[in-house]
Design a protein that fits this description.
The chain is mostly beta strands. The protein has a domain of about 55 residues. About 0% of the residues lie in helices and about 20% in strands. It is built from no helices and four strands. The protein has a four-stranded antiparallel beta sheet with strand order 1-4-2-3, with no helix packed on it. Bound molecules: zinc ion (ZN). The site of zinc ion (ZN) has 7 residues, from loops.
Length: about 80
Amino acid sequence: MAMYKYGNLLVHSQDAAFDSIHNPGAPTPHSGIYRCTACGDEVASNAGNPLPPQNHRQHQPAQGAIRWQLLVYAQQQQ
Ligand SMILES: [Zn+2]
């Protein structure tokens, strides 16, 4: 599970970007930390780069397919 130390540097959000589920290898929609909904593994990925493919970590058959969900949305200054 992702950790942080200084909660005053993070903000809670209801942005719909957190609700989308993405396939392995799909373009990363927003820079940030993504979590596999099946096994809980977490990765950092930059916008436009492919999300990690099927072999990011071996799943047990009962875990099902790798699916990435945005966990922490990086806010880049304009
Ligand atoms: Zn996984």
